[in-house]
Design goal:
Length: about 425
């Protein structure tokens, strides 16, 4: 008896065989819902990346013109969200991740005040946060918005200045909120206990408030210290830990700079080590945190002025912390031993940069729009590929989803193909 040939089944088997013969399989798309990526540590899923670039860089899938802003790009179910400025308005935009098509825009009137320092750009500086069906944003005027992520419709909002006394710096509000157990938590920077606040994600009502901390450029993270979740806030004069459920202050440690500006995001890693770094005549330090009799002990492991991360990102790979060190002068890619503070690697050739870790490699995007892929080791950096991909000031950290890299500067958003 003759059997019918199942061409569809044959094609599937042939395709699967070809994939595994060639040594790779398609990479599942990873959600990127917040500042810093899936784990808020600027570390992407380890994937094989193409480093054989033509002179003008990796393949450009699409680009879309934007207005000014440093807001990073988040990814949720094939949709990208970011923010930009158009005249006196701030725009929250949703784009199709495959082709850059605009899905919706939400316009929020946000004129800059007379003493606003636009030398660092008019913003917005904060990054959207996606939780379930909603996207949350904070603009330079400290206006907190909750929008429907499908339509851009406003659900609830708070004017943090008028309602809670927030005082954004002369460069505007810059911190990116974090979600924790049904709460939206962010540094507000107000008196009367409004330094740090938690709001209900559903309706925006205040759950707790704590301290009289001033405004900060840095974004909060959640860490776990010997079984206890802690909220870390890097404020203008110090770094502090809170109980994220109640807002109770658990510990604090000084970190002073010339202008009370701490802008980089702390890095938490193995050994209960917390890394913080600033420019402005400051430097880097690592704190060891531990639980003793229900209290958190804080021990400073080291301090060094050799590594000064101004507002870019830092990552930890193994026992080494990597970042772009520099203030108003030259910048260097640097590596520092997390436990000892020994500076183990230094690389010239980049302007001030953001870094993203992918396995033992770094994706480096400097402020001049030059992109590179670099293998980072404690002893040095091996540059595999480097190209000019953006044309204006690029202070936004890249977003990597699978092998698609999303970048932006103050002019456009770009999607690049890094597949091998």
């Amino acid at each position: 008896m003759q059997r019918n040939f199942n061409f569809t089944k044959f094609f599937r088997i042939a395709l699967i065989s070809a994939i595994f013969i060639n040594g790779y399989a398609p990479i599942a798309q990873t959600q990127w819902h917040q500042w810093g990526g899936p784990n808020r540590n600027f570390t992407a899923e380890s994937v094989q990346l193409n480093t054989d670039w033509p002179e003008d860089g990796p393949k450009r899938l699409w680009n879309h013109e934007l207005g000014d802003g440093n807001s990073a790009i988040v990814f949720d179910d094939d949709v990208l969200y970011t923010m930009y400025r158009r005249n006196d308005d701030e725009i929250i935009i949703a784009l199709n991740a495959q082709n850059g098509e605009i899905l919706w825009e939400h316009t929020h009137h946000a004129p800059l005040w007379p003493k606003f320092n636009s030398g660092y750009g008019p913003g917005p500086h904060g990054t959207p946060l996606v939780v379930d069906d909603y996207v949350y944003t904070v603009g330079v005027r400290a206006d907190l918005l909750c929008l429907n992520k499908k339509t851009g419709e406003a659900i609830w909002s708070h004017d943090l200045r008028k309602e809670f006394g927030a005082k954004p710096t002369d460069r505007g509000y810059s911190s990116s909120a974090i979600a924790y157990k049904g709460m939206l938590i962010l540094p507000v920077g107000g008196k009367r206990g409004h330094g740090v606040m938690a709001f209900d994600l559903r309706d925006g009502h205040v759950i707790w408030k704590s301290q009289n901390f001033g405004s900060t450029f840095s974004s909060p993270i959640i860490i776990n210290v010997d079984g206890q979740d802690q909220l870390v806030i890097f404020e203008g004069k110090l770094v502090a830990g809170f109980d994220p459920e109640t807002g109770k202050l658990l510990w604090k440690h000084p970190h002073r700079t010339k202008y009370d500006i701490n802008a980089s995001t702390p890095v938490w890693g193995e050994g209960n080590l917390l890394f913080i770094s600033s420019a402005y005549d400051a430097g880097s330090r690592v704190l060891h945190l531990a639980q003793n009799n229900g209290k958190t002990s804080v021990k400073e492991m080291w301090f060094s002025r050799k590594m000064k991360i101004q507002h870019g990102t830092a990552v930890r790979i193994g026992d080494t912390i990597y970042g772009s060190s520099g203030d108003s002068g030259p910048a260097f890619l640097m590596g520092a031993n997390a436990e000892t503070g020994e500076m183990t690697a230094k690389q010239r050739g980049f302007a001030k940069a953001n870094v993203l870790a992918v396995g033992n490699k770094l994706i480096v995007l400097d402020e001049d729009g030059e992109l590179a892929i670099v293998t980072a080791t404690p002893d040095g950096f091996d540059i595999h590929a480097k190209a000019q991909v953006l044309t204006t000031r690029a202070w936004t950290v890249p977003t990597l989803v699978g092998t698609t890299l999303y970048l932006r500067d103050r002019k456009e958003i770009v999607a690049l193909d890094l597949s091998p």
